[in-house]
Design a protein that fits this description.
This protein is α/β, with parallel strands linked by helices. Strand 8 and strand 9 form a beta hairpin.
């Protein structure tokens, strides 16, 4: 009987914290929904492969035309999952610089360049003539986890085509060209950009708990009596947190550097990217603080954005793209609304590809826009709930 009384008492206490209870109940269901969006139907990730087909084709003895480049493209497009979903998303390109930019932006995974003499080499090997193999080129950012998977499937499709049409795989050799210094990265160095962003992501706890502590202790009321506006208070607090976040990023980078990590691009660019990301994270912390009244509530609720920032932005591991719509030729994906997504891409460009500020236009624009949005929403909610709401 006593156990039953304790049970009902504990259950009533849980019901008095609907926000925490809702988070506990709904978070697993949200994860199920998100992964359903990642892996719809029977298929899984479709790897984006760009192709520059330079093959000129040849005429066979029978008078038929052979366009081996086009045939190979058709073979790669037919690579599918057992469910029938496409495994490789093929797009032909005319310009190599444009294709490489897509690789840097991680809007594509691999670039395949088919040489001018591809059909001629296939014809020679088919006729039993001795010839040097045709050289097909794979180009990619080797720090992109999806590159190696796409390369394996492209190689398998190529091999299947050669066995069918040339009778032997020796008709072709594959050359690999890495973007920037991506080929020289160790496995540890591949994780460094995400780890530096993680240093900023942890600010969500600091921001939410520090401000929630002011609310819980009642000091916010005394601060308001001084005539300090909510914007002034939050800006000053956010500035202090920004200093801490930048220091954490620099310390993390110094640690990585002492362990052998080197940046191909300017460190200042990485610091700026980290600082802007930190402001966006502080903005999300303000949102959490606005929705809570105690430090313990803030700590629990802050886990929700933390999980999103860690597991759905490439900080820990790559996340499949979930396209929403296209604007001006650019496809916006679902998790691009999370600032760390752009920060990880930008830091990869800086560290591995030596990218400077002028080539980070999209990432900087998205980060800045999202930061303004997150901070504005945080300030608005906090002012509405804890400032103006208290005056009523």
């Amino acid at each position: 009987m006593k156990i039953l009384s304790v049970f009902w008492k504990s259950l009533r206490e849980q019901l008095r914290q609907p926000l925490v209870l809702a988070l506990t109940l709904l978070l697993p269901a949200c994860f199920v929904l998100l992964y359903w969006m990642f892996f719809p139907g029977g298929g899984s990730t479709s790897y984006s492969v760009l192709i520059i087909n330079q093959d000129e084709g040849v005429v066979l003895e029978e008078g038929l035309d052979l366009h081996a480049g086009e045939d190979l493209i058709g073979e790669l497009a037919s690579v599918r999952y057992q469910s029938g979903d496409s495994l490789l998303s093929i797009k032909q390109m005319a310009s190599r610089p444009e294709a490489e930019q897509k690789l840097r932006d991680r809007k594509a995974t691999l670039l395949l360049i088919i040489p001018v003499d591809f059909s001629a080499k296939i014809k020679q090997f088919t006729n039993g003539e001795i010839a040097h193999p045709a050289a097909l080129t794979f180009v990619g950012d080797l720090t992109n986890p999806y590159y190696s998977v796409a390369a394996i499937f492209c190689s398998a499709g190529l091999e299947n085509y050669l066995q069918t049409y040339a009778g032997q795989v020796s008709a072709v050799e594959i050359l690999e060209e890495a973007l920037g210094d991506s080929a020289g990265r160790s496995e540890f160095e591949l994780y460094v950009p995400g780890l530096l962003v993680f240093a900023e992501v942890l600010l969500v706890f600091q921001a939410s708990m520090v401000i929630a502590g002011e609310v819980e202790a009642g000091t916010l009321q005394r601060i308001r009596m001084t005539g300090l506006s909510s914007f002034e208070y939050l800006f000053g607090t956010g500035l202090a947190l920004e200093v801490i976040g930048t220091a954490a990023l620099l310390l993390a980078f110094l640690t990585a550097h002492l362990l052998g990590f080197e940046s191909e691009g300017p460190l200042l660019a990485a610091v700026v990217i980290g600082a802007i990301t930190g402001l966006a994270i502080i903005g999300s912390g303000l949102i959490v603080a606005a929705l809570t009244r105690t430090v313990s509530q803030a700590f629990l609720l802050a886990n929700f954005p933390l999980v999103l920032f860690m597991f759905f932005t490439d900080v820990i591991y790559p996340v499949p793209a979930v396209p929403l719509f296209t604007i001006g030729g650019h496809t916006l994906n679902l998790f691009e609304i999370l600032p760390p997504t752009h920060a990880v891409i930008a830091l990869n460009k800086i560290f591995s590809l030596g990218t400077s500020f002028r080539d980070l236009g999209y990432e900087l624009s998205m980060l800045t826009g999202l930061t303004i949005l997150y901070v504005w929403v945080g300030v608005f909610l906090f002012d509405r709930i804890h400032i103006k709401g208290k005056r009523k």
